[in-house]
Amino acid sequence: MRIDLKKMSLQEKISCIFILANTLIFLVTLLLFTGINSMSREMDMVYEDNMHLNELSDALTAVQDSMTDYLNAKTSDSLEEFYRDEQTYADMVEELNDEIAGTAFLRMERSIRHMSQEYLDVVGQTIEAKRGRNVEKYRVRYENATQMYGYINTYINSLNSERFRNNSENYSKLTNTFRRFEMISILVLAVVIVGNVVVIIRLTGGMIRPLKRLATSANEVAKGNFDTELIPVAAEDEIGIVTKAFNQMVVSIRQYIERLRQSMEIQQSLKEKELMMETHLKDAQLKYLQAQINPHFLFNTLNAGAQLAMMEGADRTYDYVQNVAEFFRYNVKKGNETVTVREEIELVDNYIYILNVRFSGEIHYEKEIDESLLSIQMPGMILQPVVENCVNHGIREMEGKGKIWLKVYQEEDVVCISVRDNGKGISPEKIEKILNGTYREERHVGGSNGIGMDNVIARLKLYSEMDDVMSIYSGGENLGTEFVIYLKRKEQGEPYHVQGHAG
Amino acid sequence: MKEKNVKRTVWISGILVLLCVIAVCVCMFLFLSYIRGFREVTDADSYDKYYVMITKDRKSAFWQSVYQGAYQRGLEENAYVDLLGENLSEDYSREDLMRIAISSGVDGIFVEADEGERITELIDVAVDKGIPVVTLFGDSTHSKRCSFVGVGSYNLGREYGRQVLKIAEEQEKTKEKGEIQVAVLMNAYTMNSGQNIICSGIQDAIEQEKTGETEFSVSYITVDDTNTFAVEESIRDIFMEERLPDVIICLNELNTTCVYQAVVDYNQVGQISILGYYDSDTIINAIDRDVVNATISIDTEQMGGFCVDALTEYYLFGNTSQYFTADVTLIDKSNVAQYLKGGGEGED
């Protein structure tokens, strides 16, 4: 019972309980019935002795009567009857007690037995005498017999009444006992039934409890609280199976929700990035458009100027106008595209040329470039603003000849583009602010295409998806500044994933 | 924890079930045995011998005491003694009871006999049938009885005589009287030889031990005891006479009680001295109140015991002593206290 309890199905369990309970009640009832039955049998037996004695008395009278009958009429019929009666009586007498017992009843029975035997002898002799027609003898014997008949009858009657008195007493005692037994039976039955009910309630309660817990838990889950505790599985019945399944389900739901949340987060960040990219680009373009009111018009105008210079044979003017035209074309063409490092460097070359023309060769420009890295992809309009920054803030405000070094090299799998000047230098606080994107300079109108360092850094970050996209080193006051741009190696042809959205 | 609870519940319920069933079983068993106890009268002990005692007046304290003596002695010898006629619805005479005893196949009969012919005949019939008979208190000398148990009647008579002399001495001191009349109440059934012997004992004692001048006249008054209530009537008759006796000697318990009551009723206390017989409560109380002068206490239990002893001996050796004599004690004012206190020491 103990081992099977866990593995039994719900139906089996409940059936077991009910069968047990019913069996118990059945057993108790059976026992009580047996008790009551045997008691009533006892009660029936109470007056049995009296009935026996009455029968004995009747048989004795029958013998006496049939003897008298025979003596009177001497018919063979009466003789036959006499013998029958005598036999009956003798048989009954045989059953009487023959022991000298301590009980008066039994001793009286013994006396009756002995007297009856003698009586039967005398009666037999009387009949013999009658048959032998010995008148004298049978008269005497008849009288003897009658006297003894009287004695025996008295004995039987006395015994009967004594017994009756005793039995009546017993009967009333028995009745009382019977009543008491009845009461006790009812009490026992009531106790058993109450006990049964308690046990049934407890057992079924034990079985139903997991179901209740399951219901509570399910309610919680239905309300949306998936963090409910898992329910322990107590038994392997149907409830156990359902509980297990429920637990599994809750765990699965939690996992699914987690996964969904993660993917949503990713999407969210992607969307954010895209939006930022677009904003920055738009910002750059706006700045650009503000600066160059109409690049196309300007470009065409410049082209016309270049042609005019060529026709007039002014080669240097032609070159200058050509360079300026290139510079603006680049802006028009590549302003919003991914470009190669080569194109960016060409733009810087153009810019430096234009500046040198403007400022009559004041800026010394040196390049040290790993040719193999020229086809690396990078966002457009990065280098030129950096160089412009160097010129505007580093070189222009210094004494003497300004120098700008451009260097493209590879460190492990990161492509570094270094722009260094020998200008005024930047304080570390400023560097920090620039890199954080919190530095706001008062806008220089002259000579800038308006793209700030913050814009550059932001676009680089978006492009390369890493935080460390630029370093700024400065030796201090008048010791120059070096900007290093780090690029992930992306060869031409590899898609720039923002491209699609930006176009 | 829950599982443990369930297990515990299962265990507890199991134990409960067992307890219930056991309790019910025990209950039933107790009830049934209790009930059986009513019906089956204890017949545990059975006895080797069955003796019956037949007396004229089985209800008197005297005979009840004798019977108790015999009964107790019988139990020791593994014999059961019945006072015959006790449980019967009809009141049978001694002769009828003798006949019943004879045909009941008893092992021995103790009978209060007398010299009457019918009783003698019946004793002979019994003995002829192999049932030994012991005569008790009254003898049937001509019968074939194997033994007689009684009191030494002659000595008893002498004791009565001495008491009469003592009373005479006391009366001499108080008043002058010519002759002291002594009345001995005799039962009409004079066939009892014991009475006669007592009478001669009384007379002998008076004649031989008389010291003073006082004359004694001993008379015998016959009390009719042939009918059931005749004794009381005939005793009352005595008190109707003109000349009342000075001393009345009673020779049985019933006579003593009747005389005592009559003396009180006729206001003769102190006038008539009573010598009683047997030490029933009534008589002892009477001595205490100075109504009865003295009484004879017979060791009744010893008497009953002798009956059984006689038959035991008879069955053992085929013969037994012809006479057994029970002890007799005189109770008077001097020693009545110890009988009073005992409440019945000598009776039960």
In short:
With 503 residues, chain A is α+β, with helices and mostly antiparallel strands. Chain A is built from 14 helices and 8 strands.
CATH topology of the largest domain in chain B: Rossmann fold
Helices and strands of chain A, in order, run as: HHHHEHHHHHEHEEHEEHHEEH
CATH architecture of the largest domain in chain B: 3-Layer(aba) Sandwich
Secondary-structure content class of chain B: alpha/beta
Distance between the termini of chain B: 75 Å
Number of helices of chain B: 11
Number of domains of chain B: 2
CATH class of the largest domain in chain A: Mainly Alpha
Largest sheet of chain A: 5 strands, mixed
Would you report the number of β strands of chain B?
A: 13
In angstroms, what is the radius of gyration of chain A?
A: 67 Å
- The backbone outline of chain A, from C-alpha atoms, is rod-shaped
User: What about the largest sheet of chain B?
Assistant: 6 strands, parallel
Note the run of SSEs of chain B as H and E.
Answer: HEEHEHEHEEHEHEHEHEHEHEEH
CATH architecture of the largest domain in chain A: Up-down Bundle
Question: CATH class of the largest domain in chain B, anyone?
Answer: Alpha Beta
How helical, in percent, are the residues of chain B?
Answer: 40-55%
Number of strands of chain A: 8
Oligomer: heterodimer
Largest interface: A-B, 64 and 49 residues
Do you know the CATH topology of the largest domain in chain A? Answer: A middle domain of Talin 1
